[in-house]
Design goal:
The chain is α/β, with parallel strands linked by helices. The protein has helices at about 1-20, 65-85, 100-105, 120-135, 150-160, 180-190, 215-225, 245-255, 265-270, 275-285, 295-305, 310-325, 330-340, 345-360, 365-375, 380-395, 400-420; strands spanning about 25-35, 40-45, 60-65, 90-95, 140-150, 170-175, 200-205, 230-235. Helix 1 (about 1-20) packs across helix 2 (about 65-85). The N and C termini lie far apart (about 50 Å).
Length: about 425
């Protein structure tokens, strides 16, 4: 079962990569670093809704050894955000290395026994050159996560020790705390004794690896912060150093964004749609982002108020989404119209979709829904017109391939009726 799960996630990663590459949701850039005196490459992964609205912004994950880990880790991000909706959509930055020797230098601190250690310069490069470049080009928020595996995990933890405010959270995957005779353990002992708690979240994992130094490091942290909620540790006894990354990334991100998912129990405790919107506004504030409400969650919220004939709640929902969640407005109108059509309230559905398109000409889901409405009314030329427009807009917005497949399926169905006429 474990092997099947891993295989599924790896396959999902490959599929997500193929989709994003085809529609330019992954990008590669080069930045000359004055600090490192060399060209440094980086890769960018953009979330599904990135092009839906210019007013949205997203938390960002920086991956150490980004070329090696980029594709499987962005696949997991895609799965957690857009499929299972357990975390918000994220921008991912893969920090490229310059070969294994350069990677080892950049991830380790300079010392008598490690005179080539270059971690402080590498940290300065990330802080003073790479992050400003990313902030200039992309709509990233100030909620930033650093993630690394092995020596990258050592580097990640060293950043959390020596520069804790540089990132909001850290994920260290089977980190090499043994490096330089377990120096990080003694450094933690010196630094932690003067602190009341960890300044940022730290998620540490361990595979079935021996003498990594993880337990020693955790012992120091627990000595000074026995009641901390900032540190989480997970041990994967059935995973190797190579396989532990998949589970670590998944569990680490879910833990960091543990308040994100709106469960059924949590939703039913809300007394009104204003409380639902307050939930998402608080999350946006917590993550310093202008986020998209998860589409499946939003669909369930709309359906609950619709089937209970709470139109005032839907009106409030519409206003709040237009004001605070612009990336979700097409999701809202198209789904509400779908429920209206199921009740054969076609004229009301038509007005809803036309309002959506008037306020947002790029509302491809509303165009697709209007195509389906005209199909039901047997106005096949108009159904075709809106189906083709939906596809044209969707391509411009660089939606995922599976979404284009859905749109194309509708157009094929319409074309079949056009030919019959």
């Amino acid at each position: 079962m474990r092997f099947t799960s891993l295989l599924f996630l790896i396959t999902l990663s490959i599929l997500a990569t193929a989709q994003t590459d085809n529609f330019s949701n992954t990008k590669r850039g080069t930045l000359y670093s004055e600090i490192l005196s060399m060209n440094k490459n980086y890769q960018i992964f953009l979330p599904e809704s990135y092009h839906y609205s210019e007013n949205s912004s997203y938390p960002v994950v920086y991956i150490v050894d980004g070329d090696y880990n980029f594709y499987y880790q962005t696949g997991i991000v895609e799965s957690l955000s857009n499929i299972s909706e357990k975390i918000p959509e994220l921008i991912v930055v893969g920090i490229s290395d310059n070969g294994n020797e350069g990677y080892r230098k950049d991830c380790t601190l300079k010392s008598k026994t490690n005179p080539n250690g270059n971690a402080e310069n590498f940290i300065n490069y990330i802080e003073k050159e790479l992050k400003p470049e990313i902030e200039k080009q992309f709509r990233v928020s100030s909620y930033e996560i650093l993630m690394g595996h092995s020596l990258g995990g050592l580097f990640t933890t060293n950043v959390s020790l020596h520069h804790p405010d540089l990132f909001s959270a850290y994920i260290a995957i089977d980190p090499s705390y043994w490096w330089d005779d377990y120096r990080i353990v003694s450094d933690a002992d010196s630094l932690y004794k003067n602190k009341k708690d960890l300044e940022s979240k730290l998620f540490v994992t361990l595979a079935d690896s021996k003498r990594m130094g993880v337990h020693e490091f955790l012992g120091v942290a627990e000595k000074y912060f026995p009641d901390t909620k900032q540190l989480t540790f997970k041990y994967y006894e059935d995973e190797t150093h190579g396989s532990v990354g998949i589970l670590s990334v998944r569990d680490g991100l879910v833990k960091i964004f543990e308040s994100w998912e709106l469960t059924r129990e949590k939703f039913y405790n809300f007394k009104s749609s204003s409380e639902v919107m307050a939930h998402y506004k608080n999350l946006s504030k917590q993550y310093n982002s202008k986020l998209r409400i998860p589409p499946f969650q939003l669909s369930n919220i709309i359906y609950f108020y619709f089937r209970n004939d709470k139109m005032d709640e839907l009106t409030l929902l519409e206003h709040e989404i237009k004001t605070h969640f612009p990336s979700s407005i097409d999701d809202y109108y198209s789904k509400l119209a779908t429920y209206l059509m199921e009740k054969e309230k076609y004229e009301e559905a038509k007005k809803t979709l036309e309002k959506s398109i008037k306020s947002n000409p790029n509302a491809y889901k509303s165009h697709d829904a209007l195509s389906k409405l005209y199909y039901v009314k047997e106005d096949f030329p108009k159904a075709k017109q809106y189906a083709e427009k939906a596809i044209s807009i969707a391509k411009k917005l660089r939606v995922r391939q599976w979404q284009l497949n859905e749109l194309q399926s509708n157009l094929d169905k319409v074309n079949g009726k056009v030919k019959e006429k």
